[in-house]
Design goal:
The protein is an all-alpha fold and 297 residues long. The chain contains 15 helices and no strands.
Length: 297
């Protein structure tokens, strides 16, 4: 009952990207970033085709079919509201309200927001599925099963934050301010992890959090007005930004830890193995013919 074609395709793409990363160390002048982006684009299209070729039962058994899309749509809208609310607060506190107005009035902002970002999802979802299938689909149920609903989601946020540690030191910022970047990353991952975890519990839809993660990363050029991938590289990092992130992210996202989905252990979603076993058991029951009455006597 494993969607082998889809998983094998994903592993091939991951291996090729890993080889690009290794090659970039040995041949740093080659355009490996562009090559990687092209691979992700081609790979995403290939994975969509493979996904459509898989049997529905296999996709359901491994959480790839999707859950409640009505709830997912509402959660995406809620996340957009909270994301932009955080952005507005940041601009006002920094005394740059006029910069925010200029971004809103820029036609390029709306082109990216309404056309480029939705369309680009088709060509880049692979990277975000890879993360969220690991964090939310696999690790969240495992940690919540072992540690409880609340402690499990907090530990997941910490693990998710620390996973970014190398790029915090050597990409987002420089080693001299790496610890500040890591502190900010932990706050972001713990608070957003609460929201993403709630979204996953509420929808049982891995694609819901894949979309949320994609939105979170790809809105950065829009809200900064800098339409380049370099916007997230070599950032300045000061402890004041960490304090701001702690206060605002807590106010906007941490309240979801009080949702009913975190209060009752019975709301825990099944682990990968439990989900596959449950679906296999259901299929077995459906495929087993009922015993004739004469056979029971």
């Amino acid at each position: 009952m494993v969607p082998k074609r889809f998983f094998i395709g994903f592993l091939i793409i991951t291996t090729l990207l890993l080889l690009c990363a290794v090659a970039s160390i040995m041949l740093p002048k080659a355009p490996w970033n562009t090559i990687s982006q092209v691979m992700i684009m081609i790979g995403s299209i290939a994975l969509i085709i493979l996904l459509l070729m898989e049997n529905n039962d296999k996709l359901i058994a491994y959480g790839l079919k999707g859950g409640c899309w009505k709830a997912t749509s509402l959660i995406i809208l809620l996340y957009l509201f909270l994301y932009f609310a955080r952005t507005v607060i940041a601009y006002i506190i920094d005394g740059e309200a006029q910069s925010m107005v200029e971004i809103v009035q820029n036609p390029l902002t709306w082109t990216f927001l309404l056309a480029v970002i939705p369309f680009n999802y088709i060509f880049s979802f692979t990277a975000f599925l890879g993360e969220e299938y690991g964090w939310r689909y696999y690790l969240q149920p495992v940690l919540q099963k072992k540690l409880g609903m609340v402690r499990g989601i907090f530990v997941l946020g910490i693990v998710w934050g620390l996973w970014h540690l190398p790029i915090n030191f050597f990409y987002y910022t420089s080693p001299s301010v790496g610890f500040i970047s890591v502190a900010g990353q932990l706050i972001t991952c713990i608070t957003l992890g609460v929201f993403y975890g709630w979204a996953y519990l509420k929808t049982d839809n891995i694609w819901a959090v894949v979309i949320l993660h994609y939105i979170n990363n790809n809105l950065v050029p829009v809200v900064t007005g800098e339409y380049s991938a370099d916007v997230i590289q070599n950032q300045e990092a000061v402890w004041g930004d960490v304090l701001f992130s702690l206060i605002v992210n807590t106010l906007l996202f941490m309240g979801f830890i009080l949702a009913k989905h975190y209060k009752d252990y019975t709301n825990r979603l099944p682990t990968l193995d439990e989900r596959a076993d449950q679906h296999q058991h259901i299929n077995l029951e459906q495929s087993t013919p009922a015993l004739d009455k004469s056979e029971m006597e």
